[in-house]
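Entry 14. Structure prediction run on the chain below.
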Amino acid sequence: KWVKGVEVKASEVASQTISFEQGSIKVNVVGADNKPLQSKDMCVFPAGETEKEVKCAGIYTDKYEFKLMPGVYDLHLRSAGTSEEKWVKGIALKASEIAAQVVSFDQGTLAVTVSRANGEKAKDNSICVYAPGVTDKELACAGIYTDNHKFILKPGTYDVKVLNYKTKEEQWSKGISVKAAETTNHNIVY
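Output returned:
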C-alpha cells in the first residue's frame, strides 16, 4: 500500500495511520447430495489470471477461508474424487466483508466387485475404469490383488476392465451408468 502526500517538517514528528483491512473469501465444497466434499486443492488468483495464485488452501479439505486484501478474485478448485476442475470468476471482495462461495461437484460412486463363475472371490486383479470405447487410457485404477473397489466419478457412462495378474485374463464390462449422488453396484464375473 502506498501512502502519498506525507509532509515532514524540520523538528516535527509526522505520523500516518495505515490500515490493511482484509476481507475473506469463505469456500464450502459440496457434492450433488449437498453434503461436504473434499477438494484436492483450491487456489485464489487475481481476476483474469490463471498462472500466479495469490493463496492456496491445504490439500483435501471441504472448507477454507482466504483472508485477502480488497479486490476482485477468481477461485480455482479440483475435486478430490474425480479431479474435475471448477472456476468461480469475479469474486468482489471488500474490506472487513465475507464473500461466501458454495461450490458443488456432481459425483457418483461406482462400486465394482469381482468374482469367479464358481462363486469364489477373485483376488489377483486390477480394476480400471475407462471412458466408453477407450481401451488404452484409464481414468482410474484400483491396485493389485483386489476383488472390489469404489470409484468416485463424474456422472456418465463408463467401461470397466478387470485384469487377473496370475492368468493375464481380461474381462470387460461396458456401458455402466453412474449418476450424481448415487452408488452404482456392479459385479463382474469371470
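DSSP finds no helices and 14 strands in the chain.
Filed with the rest of this week's runs.
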